[in-house]
């Protein structure tokens, strides 16, 4: 690993984007677990991430606000109101992708849908203050193994394959984000995580 930098240092945000824009892989803290991040519009970077995790997509995509999300996903007024009620927070919402979206097809699920996250974490909030590029957000683990929340273990297991570790300390116990599929009628909870959500 090239760098291990503290999440609380504002200069780390610059390093984060330098790595992302260069097609590298960043490990960073969220409001649930640590996540791997790459440029969600860079097919090659997503391929490197798939090799590191041991599986391909679909992968969730992280943005900083609903205004940013509007650029990539189709959101009706009713859906937007539901999202406003719980975001930012520990949720991943599966939404239909807009046509001609720059987001790589490598992150997409069935029917050109994509899971989007807006985490409630101070580092993530700072990251998207002046930059709107969508970033892949997937838990740090190899497929079938436990997701990680300890930066020391992340260094040991993934240091050679990651360009930057943003060290936010040991995170609290977490079951990850709650995944809600808004493309189904009614909505369905694909995975129950930290977030409590009543489907409509």
Structural descriptors:
200 residues; alpha/beta; DHBP synthase; globular
Description:
It is a single chain. With 200 residues, this protein is of the alpha/beta class. The chain has a single domain, classed as DHBP synthase, CATH 3.90.870. Helix content is 25%, strand content 22%. It has helices spanning 11-21, 43-53, 66-69, 77-86, 122-127, 151-158; strands at 3-6, 26-29, 34-37, 60-62, 91-96, 113-117, 135-139, 164-167, 178-181, 188-191. It has a ten-stranded mixed sheet with strand order 1-8-2-3-7-4-6-5-9-10, with helices on both faces. The model has no long low-confidence stretch (mean pLDDT 93).
Secondary-structure map with pairings?
Blueprint: E1 3-6, H1 11-21, E2 26-29, E3 34-37, H2 43-53, E4 60-62, H3 66-69, H4 77-86, E5 91-96, E6 113-117, H5 122-127, E7 135-139, H6 151-158, E8 164-167, E9 178-181, E10 188-191
Parallel strand pairs: 1-8, 2-8, 4-6, 5-9
Antiparallel strand pairs: 2-3, 3-7, 4-7, 5-6, 9-10
Number of strands: 10
Q: How many structural domains does the protein architecture include?
A: 1
Q: What is the spatial order of strands in the main beta sheet?
A: 1-8-2-3-7-4-6-5-9-10
State the end-to-end distance.
44 Å
Biggest sheet details: 10 strands, mixed
Order of helices and strands: EHEEHEHHEEHEHEEE
Strand percentage: 15-25%
Structural classification:
alpha/beta
Overall mean pLDDT: 93
Q: Tell me the quaternary state.
A: single chain
Helix content: 25-40%
What is the CATH H-level superfamily? DHBP synthase
Contiguous uncertain segments of 5+ residues: none
CATH 2nd-level architecture: Alpha-Beta Complex
């Amino acid at each position: 690993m090239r760098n291990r930098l503290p999440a609380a240092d504002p200069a780390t945000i610059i390093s984060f984007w330098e790595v992302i824009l260069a097609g590298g892989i960043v490990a960073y803290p969220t409001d649930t677990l640590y996540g791997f991040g790459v440029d969600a519009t860079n097919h090659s970077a997503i391929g490197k991430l798939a090799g590191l995790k041991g599986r391909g997509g679909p992968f969730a995509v992280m943005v900083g606000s609903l205004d940013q999300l509007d650029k990539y996903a189709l959101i009706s007024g009713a859906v937007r109101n539901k999202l406003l009620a719980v975001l930012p927070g520990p949720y991943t919402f599966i939404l239909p992708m807009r046509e001609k979206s720059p987001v790589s097809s490598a992150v997409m699920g069935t029917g050109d849908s994509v899971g989007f996250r807006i985490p409630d974490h101070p580092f993530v909030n700072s990251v998207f203050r002046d930059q709107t590029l969508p970033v892949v957000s997937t838990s740090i683990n190899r497929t079938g193994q436990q997701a990680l929340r300890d930066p020391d273990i992340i260094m040991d297991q993934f240091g050679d394959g990651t360009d930057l570790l943003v060290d936010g300390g040991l995170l609290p116990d977490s079951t990850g984000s709650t995944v809600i599929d808004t493309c189904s009628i009614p909505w369905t909870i694909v995975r129950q995580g930290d977030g409590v959500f009543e489907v409509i």
